[in-house]
Amino acid sequence: MKTFLTCVAALLLVQASYAYLPSSNEDYYRVVMLNGSEIPPIKGKEIGEISLFAVADGVLEPVPFQIDEYNIGGGVYFEDWHEEIDGTLGIIDENDKILALYGDSGPRRKPFMRADGKIVAEIELLTRHGEKRYFYVVEGSRLEAEAQHVRHSIEASHVETDFFSLTYEKENQLIWKDFSFADYQGDSPIDGLKIAMETGILSSGANVSYDNENFIAKTVAENVGPIRTTAQLHLTFVLLGLDFIEVSVQLHFYPNALIYDVRLIMPETRRAMLVNPVLTMTLDFNNLYGARGITDALDEHVIVDGVMSDLERKVNELTLNSEHNGLVLKTDKGFNVATFMNWIEERDSITSIYYLDDPEYSNKVDRFKGRLPDAGYRVTELPEDGLLGFVASIYFSDKFEGKPEALSHYLRVAPDIKVNF
Length: 421
Ligand SMILES: [Ca+2]
Ligand SMILES: [Ca+2]
Ligand SMILES: [Ca+2]
Known about the structure:
The protein has 421 residues and is mainly beta. It contains 5 helices and 27 strands.
């Protein structure tokens, strides 16, 4: 009996000391992102003067964080890229971003807890369970946290995070050479990212198909940080031997996500040469027999079994809107993926789902035969001119909880944040 009671007591102690740890990886790795303008005491200060702390085991400790400077186009600023800085280099401006991981926050500080440096603001986060968690913004500290959740090397064309590793072709970031995920056993669960375009050509009347080899994305710069690393890609769509359209892509590597921020200005005269172009952007999964595909747009799920069912054919006709376009693939092997798109301007009803469950189909950029499955987005009405911009998010998890709609809402919407100063 005594042993039993001791066990209960030990269990309670464990629970108490973990009370502030989020319930799952999704919560831990959720990114907290604030604009410089949301923390007035640090606006105009030098970036190197500011750090972030949280209470752990009753003491204020530095936590991993980063401050990214932004450009006037709303992307991460790079000295080697042609977009101008928004504000001043080295200074925290309104639209610069402060990033940290939700799981590194802690309980509220007690008045006697001191930081190395001066506490200038308290960041209060409200969890989905109604708890509150805190970060402290500190000025003039000499201490730094050492954790690095993302490691990227342009030279090695390789990124490694707490969850996944990805190697890509040096000359084209859109061609994957390897992908592995945490404890997933077996061959790579993703063959690669697939970009394809089918279009008519006005001058010749021909219909042509293009694949990843016609979309060449070179990494020109990177902004390294412990929470995320951003690569600036220069993407060229090569058509009829021409550098037909040039696109700016910022690829954010998060510990559990890849986020592509894509912007281009459609050149009107070149666009006019294309007749009914259809662009698809998909993930070609490898050998995920038994996986279930779920979308916000459908109540039933599809099964990956190498056969296209009536339902799977129907999925290809579903149009998506800007709020409900989450796709989720769940396996029983500790590998799950959720994707969604955010359009920079309103583009309702022109995106639909692309889905193929086929053990035979391959093209020359496939590493593994078959598309088991190939799933993503099809864009059927490319604008005649002007800005085309979207953000495509791909999240990985060993387990996803809840319905896809709730999940994509959860991944899309930042937690409630209040700044006290
Ligand atoms: Ca700045
Ligand atoms: Ca099927
Ligand atoms: Ca394949």
